[in-house]
Amino acid sequence: MADAAFPTGAAATRIDLLLVAGMVKPGSRVLDVGCGDGALLQILQDDRHVDARGIELSQAGVNQCVARGLSVVQGDADTDLADYGDESFDYVILSQTLQATRRPRVVLESMLRIGRRAIVSFPNFGHWKVRARLALSGRMPVTENLPVSWYETPNIHFCTIRDFIDLCGEIGARIEHGVALNAGGHQVLASLPWSAWNLLGEQAVFVLSRGVPSPVSQPAD
């Protein structure tokens, strides 16, 4: 896996985008699924010098990407990844989009088919603040990482870090690297067990590859 040193370009603003970009080997062929306005693709292109491609559902997002000079097509992650050939890319990235897909398992399986590695980041619905707000208020929480009310959110499949790890096992994905970030954007100690990541991490980033499941070493829960 590439050295996760952070890029230094001026376009880099969100810590999770910096982290994801740092996991990509320079000069790689990359597909960003659900690339939004192209912020991550811009970092990858400028700082990691990759062959950066994107697929985005919204026309507004595609227009923003094209205005940046990025190679992006309009498409739906739930259906259009089937059009890509096996191992077409070195990395396929899904940044903060997994929870908005209709078929997360199928999307992950497609990513692992068309990319040698998949990088996935997502908000963690198991974070202690989410649990507390749900328990104390009896209402779906609105947080910095989940900022939209339940009736307006594009997110349809919330999951926890523990849920994601279990899904990786079900589809035969090897977890090569994982990082959980707290509210300040700092990494939760890697030596802590998954249960602690699930409680303390507001979001997580995982690097996956195909093969017999072999999660990164973790202390017993």
Structure explained in plain terms:
By secondary structure, this protein is an alpha/beta fold. The protein contains eight helices and seven strands. It has helices spanning 15-22, 39-47, 59-67, 77-80, 104-114, 128-137, 161-170, 194-200, and strands spanning 29-33, 51-56, 71-74, 89-95, 115-123, 173-181, 203-210. It has a seven-stranded mixed beta sheet with strand order 3-2-1-4-5-7-6, sandwiched between helices. The longest helix is centred in the middle third of the chain and has 11 residues, at 104-114. It is globular and about 45 Å long. Residues 3-13 have low confidence and may be disordered.
Summarize this structure briefly:
This protein is α/β, with parallel strands linked by helices and about 220 residues long. Helices cover about 30% and strands about 20% of the residues.
